[in-house]
Amino acid sequence: MKLYNSLSHEKEEFKTYEPGKVSMYTCGPTVYHFAHIGNLRSYIMEDVLEKALRWEGYEVKRVMNITDVGHLSSDADTGEDKMLKGARREHKTVLEIAQFYTDAFFDDCKKLNIKYPDVVQPATGMIDSYIKVITKLMDTGYAYFAGGNVYFDTSKLKKYYVFNDHDVEALEVGVRDSVEEDPNKRNKNDFVLWFTKSKFEDQALKWDSPWGVGYPGWHIECSCISMKFLGEHLDLHCGGIDNAFPHHTNEIAQSESYLGHPWCSHWFHVHHLNTASGKMSKSKGEFLTVSLLEEKGYDPLVYRLFCLQSHYRKALTFSWENLDNAAAAYDKLVRRIAALSREGTADAAAQGPWRTQFREVLDNDLNTSLAVTALYDVLKADLSDADKRALIGDFDRVLGLELLEHAAALSEGEKAAPAGEDAGEIENLIAQRAQAKKDKNWAEADRIRDALKARGIELIDTKEGTTWKKA
Ligand code: AMP
Ligand code: ZN
Prior knowledge:
The chain is an alpha/beta fold. About 45% of the residues lie in helices and about 15% in strands.
């Protein structure tokens, strides 16, 4: 598989340290609020990557942390712990907040058909590991103690901006602008490994350490959790693009200084989901959740399809209109699959070329939009219905759209057009009627409805759009 690697800045052949096995780490959520659908875009695309690797025969072990301490309101070590802010907002304890939003996150993942990771580790459960790694970094001169905190000394590295194929200056200015200068830091990019002193003395969770009672910085958790469960050589590290700097940059700095050798060979970054007004962000407080999509009548898998229709390395703009298009596409796909006969036996040899085509698009930097197109190609192909069903089921092991399950769940009435009718044509008429209504051309809208009624097809208008059934 060819996959873009943020470390080399190019598409390269994905290689693993142990043949046939992938160690995969994912930065998990900071559990002070619901995940928004932007966060979930990252997890959906990482899930497809994991499923694609499994589909290609790799044995994958995937580990995810849960950030329940140490992620301050600025990624550059200033501000208050996000968890504490969340707890105050909801008049609950930090642990209650963490449990509630961790459960909510995995509920959302389930609805989006995102596989539960093999290991899930909350950051608060690994304090001994952080102390062990920080102690070694202190002993080897990579870390220093100043003003009550332990900092990583970035001047000790040959190269710090590992992902930066853009403008170093721009990044530095970004850092400078967003951060109040911390006088304890020897270099402006140094970052905290362990806090005992911060402006916010009411930190709820604190632990004893050789440097005093305190709490870990955000970055150290991912290095330690990854090394504990996946060893010293990591194949694949994933996250949203905003994590590349400073979070992943700092993870590499501390992990490689601790290990004394290169650590993770492949970095997979998912680009952002934006709204018309910019990046969707939890800290801004205004964001869309899976529950909101459900309340508006969307199946969460429609959002999954919406994400798959774009490449993970391109920013994606959310709009209700785009989601409606995905909903219509999903509905159409399911209906076309439901109309396939369940009779007959599949012929693996006949399916071969379509499997090869599907593999090629996955292998080309996980081109999920062409992988979705492959479903349509199969539906149109000169293959038996049994082969079509087999291929769709197989591709869906990667795409995770639960197509066969949804097709099977369609009621008999909904399933197929009445004898002699073409479902595509009916959808088309429905779309024309919607346009006529938009244009306030009521006569035309009624004409289409009546024409369909005369053919025994009843239209049902809901706030999410129009469906139809055999009257
Ligand atoms: P957080 O819960 O803030 O730690 O973020 C969880 C994951 O979501 C991280 O991998 C982030 O990089 C990613 N993320 C945050 N905002 C967005 C967004 N608007 N679009 C896509 N991914 C995002
Ligand atoms: Zn992380």
